[in-house]
Amino acid sequence: MTLSKAKAQSSDAKSLASRGETIAKVGSLVSAIVASSCCWLPLLLLAIGVSSAGVASALEIYRPVLIVVTFGFLAAAFYFTYRPRRKAAGEHICCAAESTDVDNRCCASTSTGRFGMMAANKIMLWVVTLLAIVFLLFPHYVGALLGGSETNTAAANTNRAIVKIEGMSCDACAAVTEKTLRDVPGVLAAEVDYMRGEAVIRTESGAAFPRDEILAALKKVGYVGHLDRHRQIEPAREIVFKVARLGCPLVDGVGCGHLLAPTLGEIDSMEGVTRSFSNWTGALIRVSVAKTSDREAVAERVRAVLAANQQKPSRIAGDDLTRALQKEDWRGADRIFELTSYEFNTVAKRRINDFASSEGLKRSERTRLLDLVDELWEKAAEGLDTPKPESEAYAMYWRNRLDKFVTAYAHRARELLSAEQVEKLVRMASRVESPSPNDQSVPRGKGQDAH
Question: From the CB of residue 160, how many other CB atoms can be counted at a distance below 10 Å?
């Protein structure tokens, strides 16, 4: 091979590598920008007054793929930039030991230029990498750029409503939605939580709730909203009591569904009561009063019911009432079963952990047994009606569900355990005593096994 041909091949190889390096850098930056377009594009469209309906949800589907593509391009760019450099045939002649001073000066000039270009390429690569990361993480910090929620600045005497929102998947979705809702006439403040899929909206007390305007605003940004009528809160029509003896005896910080369900069912049947609720811990009972009823008269009737069940009601008011209405996650009689479900699930896992320890099971076996609880517990609800709040009907629902769960669990556990171990585990899992709302002989938290 002649020297000229070697140099030509070397030049072609360098040119190809340079083009590959450029394509990789540009590709990584473009794919990162497109990957975050599900967040910045709706903002841009809103800024110029164009509807972004469906844009975010449509682009969100491709975000994981584009993230992989971005890192693929970056990997290629790093390879082309940092790959080992090989000398081409004949390249050593320039800088050979026997070369003249003129040759050496030429070689030094060429070498300096080459290394200067390599340094520039490396700097450019790291700049592109930084920009790609900035764009990829855009959904996680766009909320801070747009400004925080204005909920805390709303006056205390405001109405509060919950709107369920479908389709949000990141902080950017929540930030865009929150900004849109705050611009709706009549909305004083809005706070959106994409994890819960809901928006807390505050409007002026006594003013009509702008339902249609809010739902239209959500549709404009590509989401479907549903107003949770049971969770519209007007402080002037609300009563909240702090109570005792309604917590779960085995799971700290959770209300006892077997006690709360019949209690709320009884309060709901009272004259003047629109609906009653409990918070997650069962320590607070909230009552919504009908607009045509006397709030104080209803409060006294509710107090009498709670006191008769030895629940030591203590009414809260003022700032404490406002904070409770704003911060607590309220559940009516139709959702109290969520507390009981959590109780059963937690106690089941605790007992399985104890069983695994007593049997000396391997960590992998313990993990599999615990995973089966989550897998089978919800399936056990299939085919069963929603539990009714009446004491006996509520207890019957959970006995039936527990029986289904234990049967399915025992069948699956045979894959990991011996017949004797399965029998022992079933006995432990089936040991459930549901407290009766009329049985106050045992203080809550002591002496009872489970719900």
Answer: 21
Among the listed residues 136, 154, 147, 153, the one whose alpha carbon sits nearest the alpha carbon of residue 175: 147
pTM as predicted: 0.53
DSSP state of 170: S
Contacts 24+ apart (CB under 8 A), 134-137: 135/29, 135/32, 135/33, 135/35, 135/36, 136/32, 136/35, 136/36, 136/67, 136/70
CATH of domain 144-233: 3.30.70.100
Q: Hey, what amino acid is at 278?
A: S
120 CA to centre of own chain: 43
Within its chain, how far is the Cα of 410 from the centroid? 32
Task: Supply the DSSP string of 214-264, one letter for each residue.
Answer: HHHHHHHTT-EEEEEEEEEE-GGGEEEEE-SS-B-SSSTT-B-HHHHHHHH
The third-level CATH classification (topology) of the domain covering 236-327 is: Alpha-Beta Plaits (3.30.70)
- Residue ranges, the chain, pLDDT below 70: 1-18, 20-21, 35, 37-43, 45-61, 85-116, 139-158, 205-208, 228-232, 430-451
User: How does pLDDT run across 147-192, given as a tens digit for each residue?
Assistant: 554 444 444 456 777 888 887 777 777 877 888 888 898 888 888 8
Instruction: Find all residues with CB under 8 Å of 407, minimum gap 6, and list them.
Output: none
Handedness of CA 201, 207, 212, 217 (dihedral sign): negative
For the chain, what is the total number of helices (H) and then of strands (E)? Answer: 15, 8
Domain residue extents for the chain: 8-136, 144-233, 236-327, 337-430
Intrachain domains 144-233 and 236-327 with the same fold: yes
Strand, helix or coil for residue 301: helix
